[in-house]
């Protein structure tokens, strides 16, 4: 396990400061430039001891700032009993500054306060003892070597903390932007998956059903009819795929900033053709399809509502072709507020239309259950209601069961109404 304590190896800048301070102090001593005279120790060579100690403390100014400051205090006090050198004083101010800048938050608070107290106290004490106005100059000197570097360290530390906070906010903003981008990509992929399923699954289901019929029925006429339906659905499925590719290209051009022509979306005006196509595809399975459009005349529906209603009917008809028992599949519309969509079909085969196994023959085409999930998501995005499941077809024991898909789509935006999402 690695230690979290900082390394004792000195920073190269600290080594440079220590070497320059030591050489500068030696040069001043050699030139006889001292800060004071007449001290208890008259041998000027003793001045080099506090100088060397102070230079050694400079090596710890980043890794151990408080230790370095403690050593510096001892060295600067010892320097007062020698001839003294300016280099020792300057290195002490640097260590005071480094202790505030690189030390703990607690040290950064109390060091400037202690320096201020020391400055004021030294001035008052010397003034009171010696009754000399020169004590004010002593207080200024103490303030310059203690309070000034400490307050400078506080200012630099505050600036660095503000810069770090701004950098962190920028990183967080970039992270949130990346999360938003990924969420948008995921939502777009889900939308594309729904479009692909809704546009192509209907045709592929019809192809699978009639291909099975063509293989199992030894009738040339029936086989030719099945092949004709297969060809028609193949052509229509190819056209739908081309339309989806156009949508993807338009989305890509929009992402690149290029202008793209809007692609036409299916509307409820095409439901009659959709039901007629389902009638052709389901005739061999004993299915009949009917459309009951009881909508009141009024203003045009919002495009998202109309597209959702169309896709719900399309997916429900596809599920009926796969799973419904012989009988009538009815599509009923009412509205305009809310727009209600209901698709009912006889229920009697081996699987329910959500893909759960039941008792009976195998469905005419496989299903994954993704269609119901896609319908529910479309309705939820519009704040509507959705149910899907078996229900009684009517009164009497012979009425049996039927599968019903019902959706209520609000056509007027209501910001106060919560989204309603129910399961069958």
Structure description:
The chain has helices spanning 12-30, 48-58, 65-79, 86-102, 105-130, 135-216, 220-255, 271-282, 303-323, 370-381, and strands at residues 287-293, 327-334, 339-346, 385-392, 401-409. It is α+β, with helices and mostly antiparallel strands.
Quick gist of this model?
This protein is an alpha+beta fold.
Layout of secondary structure:
Blueprint: H1 12-30, H2 48-58, H3 65-79, H4 86-102, H5 105-130, H6 135-216, H7 220-255, H8 271-282, E1 287-293, H9 303-323, E2 327-334, E3 339-346, H10 370-381, E4 385-392, E5 401-409
**Average of pLDDT:** 78
Give, in spatial order, the strands making up the sheet with the most strands.
1-2-3-5-4
Strand pairing plus helix content: what structural class? Answer: alpha+beta
Major beta sheet, specifics? 5 strands, mixed
Low-confidence segments:
257-262, 349-365, 415-424
Rough outline: rod-shaped
In total, the number of strands is 5
Number of domains: 2
How much β-strand is present in the residues? 5-15%
């Amino acid at each position: 396990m690695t230690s979290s304590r900082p390394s004792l190896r000195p920073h190269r800048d600290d080594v440079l400061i220590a070497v320059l301070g030591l050489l500068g102090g030696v040069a001043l001593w050699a030139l006889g430039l001292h800060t004071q005279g007449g001290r208890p120790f008259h041998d000027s060579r003793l001045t080099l001891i506090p100088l060397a100690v102070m230079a050694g403390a400079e090596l710890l100014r980043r890794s151990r700032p408080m230790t370095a400051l403690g050593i510096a205090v001892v060295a600067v006090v010892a320097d007062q009993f020698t001839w003294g050198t300016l280099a020792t004083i300057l290195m002490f101010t640097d260590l005071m500054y480094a202790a505030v800048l690189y030390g703990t938050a607690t040290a950064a608070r109390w060091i400037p306060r202690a320096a201020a107290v020391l400055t004021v106290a030294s001035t008052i004490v010397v003034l009171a003892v010696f009754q000399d106005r020169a004590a004010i100059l002593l207080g200024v000197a103490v303030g310059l070597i203690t309070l000034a570097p400490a307050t400078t360290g506080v200012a630099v530390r505050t600036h660095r903390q503000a810069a770090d906070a701004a950098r962190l906010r920028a990183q967080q903003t970039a992270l949130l932007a990346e999360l938003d981008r990924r969420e948008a990509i995921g939502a777009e992929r889900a939308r594309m998956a729904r479009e692909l399923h809704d546009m192509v699954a209907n045709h592929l289901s019809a192809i699978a059903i009639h291909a099975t019929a063509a293989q199992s029925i030894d009738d040339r006429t029936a086989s030719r009819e099945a092949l004709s339906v297969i060809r028609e659905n193949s052509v229509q499925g190819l056209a739908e795929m081309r339309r989806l590719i156009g949508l993807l290209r338009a989305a890509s051009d929009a992402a690149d900033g290029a202008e793209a022509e809007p692609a036409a979306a299916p509307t409820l005006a095409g439901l009659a053709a959709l039901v007629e196509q389902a009638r052709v595809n389901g005739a061999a399975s004993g299915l009949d399809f009917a459309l009951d459009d009881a909508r009141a005349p009024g203003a045009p529906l919002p495009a998202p509502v109309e597209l959702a209603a169309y896709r719900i009917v399309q997916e429900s008809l596809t599920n009926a072709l796969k799973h419904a028992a012989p009988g009538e599949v009815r599509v009923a519309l009412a509205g305009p507020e809310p727009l209600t969509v209901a698709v009912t079909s006889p229920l009697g085969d081996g699987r329910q239309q959500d893909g759960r196994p039941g008792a009976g023959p195998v469905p005419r085409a496989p299903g994954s259950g993704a269609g119901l999930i896609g319908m529910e998501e479309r309705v939820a995005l519009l704040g509507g209601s959705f149910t899907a499941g078996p229900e009684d077809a009517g009164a009497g024991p012979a009425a049996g069961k039927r599968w019903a898909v019902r959706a209520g789509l609000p056509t007027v935006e209501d910001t106060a109404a919560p989204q309603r999402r129910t399961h069958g």
